[in-house]
């Protein structure tokens, strides 16, 4: 039987729905604004001062200027290589480190953990970091964007806590069956911590996708530039052309090209995120509640 709602409950539910719809509208409007602005005519857009709900003078000039760069496809391929290979190695190394630090019979575990956490607050700085990468002969290679960042301390702590939440009885049963540490990690712990692993994939993957600073330091060959560095180059080229007045309509295009670059760099992540979103809250909570 369906319980009849009172008048006060109806008012409360309607109020909740209205508030949630307002929150959704406020949250989605920036994405909508960026999308319609990228398809707007630059000259008309610069004169517009109110809220924007539809393209003003529909134009593809911003996208044409973006895709006119011959290095855009190469940037996508470089970023995909860095993302796929880097994320895989990140998960492997972080899992190994988290498994080691989550075992109860490890000697000097606390001092080792203290040394790892120490790196979250203090680092050698940019110059020692650059010199280290250069002396390892990793500069001007895509590996300079992967190997120095194989383990993120914050992600290691989350995964370690998730591993510690698994009952000891499961590990003891596996050992009685003759399972090695590698078997326990790959066939027992990692499958049970799939939500946390999914969150780590999202963290590392988004980090690689948005990264451009290290690439600007270590890479000199344009053929190795990742997507974000190519997009930054496109934006700077249009800005410089604007300041030099080489094109009459360059200023108007440079205003809308910023939004087109956001769309080009964001859409792939938006397609992947829904598949991992269901694991996000569960994975973070599992890795954060028990210490």
From TrEMBL:
<dbReference type="InterPro" id="IPR035906">
    <property type="entry name" value="MetI-like_sf"/>
</dbReference>
<dbReference type="InterPro" id="IPR000515">
    <property type="entry name" value="MetI-like"/>
</dbReference>
<keyword id="KW-1003">Cell membrane</keyword>
<feature type="transmembrane region" description="Helical">
    <location>
        <begin position="257"/>
        <end position="276"/>
    </location>
</feature>
<keyword id="KW-0472">Membrane</keyword>
<feature type="transmembrane region" description="Helical">
    <location>
        <begin position="12"/>
        <end position="32"/>
    </location>
</feature>
<keyword id="KW-0812">Transmembrane</keyword>
<feature type="domain" description="ABC transmembrane type-1">
    <location>
        <begin position="76"/>
        <end position="274"/>
    </location>
</feature>
<dbReference type="Pfam" id="PF00528">
    <property type="entry name" value="BPD_transp_1"/>
</dbReference>
<dbReference type="GO" id="GO:0055085">
    <property type="term" value="P:transmembrane transport"/>
</dbReference>
<keyword id="KW-0813">Transport</keyword>
<feature type="transmembrane region" description="Helical">
    <location>
        <begin position="112"/>
        <end position="131"/>
    </location>
</feature>
<protein>
    <submittedName>
        <fullName>L-arabinose transport system permease protein AraQ</fullName>
    </submittedName>
</protein>
<dbReference type="GO" id="GO:0005886">
    <property type="term" value="C:plasma membrane"/>
</dbReference>
<keyword id="KW-1133">Transmembrane helix</keyword>
<feature type="transmembrane region" description="Helical">
    <location>
        <begin position="143"/>
        <end position="163"/>
    </location>
</feature>
<feature type="transmembrane region" description="Helical">
    <location>
        <begin position="184"/>
        <end position="206"/>
    </location>
</feature>
<comment type="similarity">
    <text>Belongs to the binding-protein-dependent transport system permease family.</text>
</comment>
<feature type="transmembrane region" description="Helical">
    <location>
        <begin position="80"/>
        <end position="100"/>
    </location>
</feature>
């Amino acid at each position: 039987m369906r319980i009849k709602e009172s008048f006060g409950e109806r008012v409360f539910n309607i109020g909740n729905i209205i508030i949630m719809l307002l929150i959704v509208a406020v949250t989605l409007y920036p994405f909508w604004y960026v999308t319609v602005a990228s398809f707007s005519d630059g000259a008309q857009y610069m004169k517009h001062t109110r809220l924007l709900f539809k393209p003003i003078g529909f134009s593809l000039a911003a996208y044409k200027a973006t895709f006119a760069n011959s290095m855009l496809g190469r940037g996508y391929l470089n970023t995909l290589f860095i993302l796929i290979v880097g994320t895989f190695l990140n998960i492997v190394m972080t899992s190994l480190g988290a498994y080691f630090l989550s075992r109860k019979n490890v000697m000097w575990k606390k001092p080792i953990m203290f040394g790892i956490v120490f790196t979250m607050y203090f680092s050698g700085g940019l110059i020692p970091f650059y010199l280290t990468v250069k002396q390892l002969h990793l500069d001007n290679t895509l590996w300079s964007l992967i190997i120095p960042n194989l383990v993120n301390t914050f992600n290691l702590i989350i995964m370690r806590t998730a591993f510690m939440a698994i009952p000891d009885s499961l590990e003891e049963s596996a050992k009685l069956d003759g399972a090695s540490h590698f078997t326990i990690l790959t066939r027992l712990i990692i499958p049970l911590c799939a939500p946390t692993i999914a969150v780590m994939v999202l963290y590392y993957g988004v980090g690689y996708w948005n990264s451009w600073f290290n690439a600007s330091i270590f890479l000199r060959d344009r053929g190795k530039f990742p997507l974000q560095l190519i997009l930054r180059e496109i934006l700077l080229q249009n800005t410089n052309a604007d300041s030099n007045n080489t094109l009459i309509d360059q200023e108007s295009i440079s205003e809308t090209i910023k939004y087109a670059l956001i769309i080009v760099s964001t859409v792939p992540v938006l397609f992947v995120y829904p598949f991992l979103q269901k694991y996000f809250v569960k994975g973070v909570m599992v890795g954060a509640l028990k210490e």
